[in-house]
Amino acid sequence: MSPEQETILERLRQILAKEFEVVPELIQPTARMDQLAIDSLAVIEVMFMLEDEFKISFPQDPGVLETIGDLVTAIDQLVTGQRAQPSSGVAAP
């Protein structure tokens, strides 16, 4: 994992521990979300929280997000990709 992905993983760990009462030590890249008692509905809630946390927007079909590692990779790619894109066309004051 890159340093950026390690940072994302740590922030994700904090969110899942606080909001879903998942034991932080269980939140590893290879852990499946369903094994952490995060069902498909909870994944959507997590995605909304992550959009706020990382100032990103998930696509309507984010692809397969079965493991914590999948989620970390998706966030990393979105952060990198959306940071590289120009803003929404609204001029900064």
Topology (elements, then pairings):
Blueprint: H1 3-20, H2 40-54, H3 68-84
Helix pairs in contact: 1-3
Compose a concise summary of this entry.
The protein is mostly helical. It has helices spanning 3-20, 40-54, 68-84.
At the fourth level of CATH, the homologous superfamily is ACP-like
> In what range is the share of β-strand residues?
under 5%
CATH topology descriptor: Non-ribosomal Peptide Synthetase Peptidyl Carrier Protein, Chain A
| Total domain units | 1
The biggest sheet, with number of strands, parallel, antiparallel or mixed sense and barrel status, is: none
Question: Helix coverage percent of residues?
Answer: 40-55%
- From the N-terminal CA to the C-terminal CA, the straight-line distance is 37 Å
Would you identify the CATH architecture?
Orthogonal Bundle
What's the CATH first level?
Mainly Alpha
- Content-based structural category: mainly alpha
Count of alpha/pi helices: 3
Work out the number of β strands. Answer: 0
Q: Pick out the low-confidence regions.
A: 89-93
Quaternary state, please? single chain
Radius of gyration: 14 Å
Order of helices and strands: HHH
- Roughly what is the average pLDDT, rounded to an integer? 86
Report the principal-axis shape. Answer: globular
Task: Supply the key terms.
93 residues; mainly alpha; Non-ribosomal Peptide Synthetase Peptidyl Carrier Protein, Chain A; 54% helix; 0% strand; disordered C terminus
Written account of the structure:
With 93 residues, the protein is an all-alpha fold. The protein has one domain: ACP-like (Non-ribosomal Peptide Synthetase Peptidyl Carrier Protein, Chain A, Orthogonal Bundle), CATH 1.10.1200. The chain has three helices and no strands. It is globular. Residues 89-93 have low confidence and may be disordered.
